[in-house]
Specification:
Layout (H helix, E strand, L loop, with lengths): L2 H9 L12 H38 L3 E6 L10 H5 L9 E5 L1 E7 L4 E8 L9 E5 H7 L6 E8 L2 E13 L4 H6 E4 L1 H8 L8 E5 L3 H21 L5 E6 H4 L1 H39 L1 H9 L4 H37 L6 H4 L10 H18 L1 H4 L7 H4 L4
Parallel strand pairs: 4-8, 5-7
Antiparallel strand pairs: 1-9, 1-10, 2-9, 3-4, 3-6, 5-8, 6-7
Helix pairs in contact: 1-11, 2-9, 2-11, 2-13, 9-13, 11-13
Amino acid sequence: MNGFEVNIARRLGWKAEGRKRVSPAVTVAVTGVALAVVVMMISIAVMLGFKREVTNRILSLDDAVTISGYSDDNSPQPFNPAEITSAITLPQEAEIVGHTSTPTILKTPDDFLGLDLRSLENCALADTSLAISNSSAARLRLSVGDRVPAYFFIDGRLKVRMLTVDSLFTSNLGDLDRSVAYCSPALIEQLLGLEKGHVFSIGIRNVSEEQIEPLATAIYGELMQAHYSGSLSQAYGISTILQTDGQIFSWLRLLDTNVVVILTLMGFIAAFTLVSSLFIIILERVRTIGLLKSLGATNAQIRRIFMLMAERLVLRGMLIGNLLALGLIAIQYYTRLIPLDPANYYVDFVPIRLTLLSVIALNLGVLIISWLILILPGLIVARISPATTMRYD
């Protein structure tokens, strides 16, 4: 491509021959590209935002990897966490949390609710206190400071404890809010007669999603080796959050498919708009094409001239689209203007995340694809005869 094509492409304006206003084809092309870029960039930002926000929330509330103790008859068996920690190797940033739990029924004069009462390490809860979700408190009409009887069925016996509602929480994870309450480890130890510090399972946290499967595999191998060497006193099972919360992670993976569909559709729409607009632009400049051919310009040169003109339209549309998209993304990021129902989406706002790499990749993709599809309308230049263009009106 030489200076001739570039110079002619610069001098040929976007106004149709004999008109003072910009050709409608130009306006349609720029608008189509801009809208496509806006929709695609916002789709990518929302997808990345959802994946990061929901994943971080789940990993902050649940264990990435769980190791549970079992007896010979496959029933839960308490154990000393030190037995496990001495047998496995963890990443430096990983955190180990012990868990005990027991089912309970909270009963008020008007209603009752079955919950899984879980211990919460390093908490400020007293031995006679518990923390319940806002949805559970609303159902039972309880507030902070209220006392409620809790019923436990342990070893065929009914035990009752008067517990005080110490605090309320909202996780925005429906199952957790509906079915879980928290208490101090000492309360469950007293109810179940456990040795101090013994737990039914330990959870490993502060682990990224990419580390979960490799870490679980490594721990499994280390526990098997410790078991065969006789250093473990009982059997242990391993599960990951990818298994226990698999439905949520499957939904997050489905977002990738949705974004691919949106990008494909918007790409087809932008491509159709560009091809149609370039056809119109070429037809509006048939006389110019005939004049250039009569002056000795080759078909390849004229084709490149119109492709350069079309790329100018694409670049203008991309610039407008980027500015609009980034503006809308910034508004949502800083103001959280668009809300969501956390019962369905696990978050109460539309999360946004956009990386420099995704912006660059999107713009390069649009630029390259637009250049490729503009080859087709440029081919009709070869079929235009100088003699015919002189009579074209």
